[in-house]
Amino acid sequence: MKIAIVGCGNMGMAFARSFIQYNLVKKEELLLIEKSKERSETLKASKEGIVVDTINEQIGDYDLVILSVKPQDFSMVAAELRTVLKEPQIVLSIMAGINIDRIQQELAHKMVVRAMPNTPAMLGMGITGFSADESIGFSKLQKIENLINATGRSVYIEDEQMLDAVTALSGSGPAYFYYVVKHMIEAGKQMGFEDSMAQLLVKQTMLGAYHLINSAEMNIDELIKAVASKGGTTEAALKTFGESGVDTGLVAGILNAEKRAKELSK
Ligand SMILES: NC(=O)C1=CN([C@@H]2O[C@H](COP(=O)(O)OP(=O)(O)OC[C@H]3O[C@@H](n4cnc5c(N)ncnc54)[C@H](OP(=O)(O)O)[C@@H]3O)[C@@H](O)[C@H]2O)C=CC1
Ligand SMILES: O=C(O)[C@@H]1CCC=N1
């Protein structure tokens, strides 16, 4: 499959590198379109594909065109892309918020898949939700799914609107995790640890705790209970979290991310 990627930043290149790693595309058949001069120079030097800085008619030769520019840049990209796209090509968008209908309208193109990955895709450990226009048949969709799976796992989302919730939960999710980690490290430093020691204690705790979620025969509440002894230290921390609204704040924040995804659609 010949693949063109428009916007080769963090996510565009996470996809490109995963495809190359699993031999799903040859470097000679991977077109990297990147506007940023600095980034395109770096890509040229690393020889990860054919690097160009503008959209041109070459794109018409590619089976799949991936849109990984910021949602705010989409209309400008669409104005150029619609003049060079050909009917059998599939467009795969990973842009937050922008729905299939708008992509189809601005590109004047029917075959659109919309996906929402996350940054662990850089390690092949991402999770991506995706939806597709009904014009894309089963076998074509399977090919796209196989490509996405090179970046980690994927889930087909039948109701496209739910991709905004995927965006808020797993798309943005890594940042929530780092936010918690960051503030735990900060607490460690306030208690007198060096940064490196605080980091070690927190990171290994997160890693071990994550594995317990999957292997222990306990649900999340039971796992919490197993740490929080009656009248002990964990209970004291959880009481303060509750009083400061950490729990409701987290939920409200994620719902606000979903709201923002819907705003980006406009
Ligand atoms: N980061 C994340 O965690 C996730 C992001 N996404 C989505 O992925 C998309 C990309 O995000 P991300 O990789 O973080 O963003 P980046 O800013 O890292 O990458 C986007 C790149 O596209 C370039 N670009 C802009 N306009 C054009 C154009 N006309 N032609 C070619 N290249 C262009 C930008 O250049 P310049 O900087 O000069 O504008 C930039 O280098 C977004 O739509 C985002 O919503 C989805 C899931 C997770
Ligand atoms: O913050 C954003 O808008 C993008 C989408 C999901 C993660 N990053």
Automatic annotation (TrEMBL):
This is Pyrroline-5-carboxylate reductase. It is an enzyme of class 1 (oxidoreductase). It is found in: Cytoplasm. Its EC number is 1.5.1.2. GO terms for molecular function: pyrroline-5-carboxylate reductase activity. Catalyzes the reduction of 1-pyrroline-5-carboxylate (PCA) to L-proline. The keyword Nucleotide-binding does not apply. Residues 2-97 form the Pyrroline-5-carboxylate reductase catalytic N-terminal domain. Belongs to the pyrroline-5-carboxylate reductase family. It comes from the Bacteria. The keyword Amino-acid biosynthesis applies. Coiled coil: none annotated. The gene is proC. SUPFAM superfamilies: 6-phosphogluconate dehydrogenase C-terminal domain-like (SSF48179), NAD(P)-binding Rossmann-fold domains (SSF51735). Signal peptide: none annotated. Pathway: Amino-acid biosynthesis; L-proline biosynthesis; L-proline from L-glutamate 5-semialdehyde: step 1/1. It catalyses: L-proline + NADP(+) = (S)-1-pyrroline-5-carboxylate + NADPH + 2 H(+); L-proline + NAD(+) = (S)-1-pyrroline-5-carboxylate + NADH + 2 H(+). It holds the Pfam family P5CR_dimer. Keywords: Amino-acid biosynthesis, Cytoplasm, NADP, Oxidoreductase, Proline biosynthesis. Residues 160-264 form the Pyrroline-5-carboxylate reductase dimerisation domain.
